[in-house]
Amino acid sequence: MSQHDNSYAAVMARSNEIMKASVGMDYDDYVISPIAFDYERMMRDTGYTHAEIVKIQSETKVGNTPLFELKRLTEAVRKISEPGKGARILLKDEAANASGSFKARRAALSVFEAARKGFKGVVAATSGNYGAAVASQANQRDLKCIVIQEVFDSRGVGQPEIIEKGRKCEAYGAEVIKLTVGPELFYIHLLTLEQTGFFNASLYTPFGIRGVETLGTEIAEEVRIRYGKDPDAVIITHAGGGNLTGTARGLLAAGADKTRIVACSVDLSGLHMASDTDFNKKSFTTGHTGFGVPFATWPDRADVPRNAARSMRYMDEYQLVTQGEVFFVTELLTKLEGIERGPAGNTSLTAAITMARQMDRDQIVVVQETEYTGAGKHHNSQLSFARENGIKVYVGDPAENVPGKTIVLPERLDQVRGKAQDLESLKLSYLRNAARRHPVQAWTDADISFLAQDIKSTPEWVRANLPTD
Amino acid sequence: MAKIEKGSWVEIKQVVLQPEERARNLPEDTKQTPYVMRMSGFLTADAELGDTVTIRSLIGREHEGTLVTLNPSYSHSFGPTMAELLHIGIDEEAK
User: A343: which DSSP letter?
Assistant: First the structure.
């Protein structure tokens, strides 16, 4: 096919070569089989030391964010906990990064790498905070920026939060390509990369993930200095897996290998992520199970050939929370702790309430991010938009939350319970996904070893649980 | 229709893929709709709403599409007050 055939099929067929040129690395170098690859070598080959990443980020207003102890919220949790329970809750205020979220860490290293390699601009395909993060970093490195967003349904109506994120990208001077609902965003992404020759600042390259490692090391180091121990648990909002992977790797690099890594997503089960009608029925655009579960059970579905974000390698637990619980906790953070932060960033804070209740008083649970707030990115915006779109919003028992139909705000803190996602079933699902890509009969010892590591398990467990069809 | 001057900040719309050209495995509702792009930029020549035009984006790239809006703006807000939120954290039972 000619380079000028820009039809959907032709561009998708050129996917591999476009990727190779736009990330400046050849994923084929790391491939072991259709499912296995040398993950650690790929991460090492980014070539940056921890100290270099810290320096690069500090040049562009990223990192070294405050770690707050949430004293009144901790007290409130202790009041509803059994005697001796109620861990101390700490909050890493990532909203303090340039552009207002932890995504600046991912963007900082990608954009630095793009500049170092001589690219004239960067492209990011995202409807999340990452777009603004890349745009903000691109400004500081004098690169051009294009952000490709899924913004509206076929009526032209967009979620207030996504509209706000588009506004912020444009405010930074980025070109924002706004699209209707559908996976064909990837086609536009490829076409844009090909037409511009810009760097693919994907969320899922090794640079994007290594940039988050500083978040994990900052937490480990600061908790040690202030409390003389490692955090007992770190709760991480989970969608594509980069936040969890990078933070966990950073904690491990700092030697905090006993800290429990807890994923948390908003439960949006039942809503289809590529559905035009479901699109505006969800009040969370990321950090939800619609990304969290598929990316945990098969990471290699991203916009790069091999995903550097591999959450199951590091995850010890997975908590689910409802939309109503997150909005309740967002309001409570404002009223008790005197800081307003965006609801999506408070997903892990919501799970922290449940976790802290079960943990001892002398333990420490860290919520590792916040995000900026404002018009559109606010729980009042989200709830009023939900009501306009036919969602029933009321105060009651959060167990009555049904994604796409109801949002129930808890009456009291002790109703914020969340629920645990069964990790074993996710691991089995991961193995079935691996079998779909490479038949079990063809799995070698190297494959099994890779799969075991990729889900924090053992080769024996994988062999005992081989998919049968 | 009123003429819109070259250099104005405008929004264009373009059908990227017709329903039959779209990816396979889409949910039924999405399958019925075309894949549409919107983008803002500076108009490169005088035109009227509905015309096929070219815009120059904030980074200087040119894109073609149907002119749909003059001076596209952001009007997203905090929305009508949700009184349910106001009770949280002030009533003793909500703490």
Answer: T
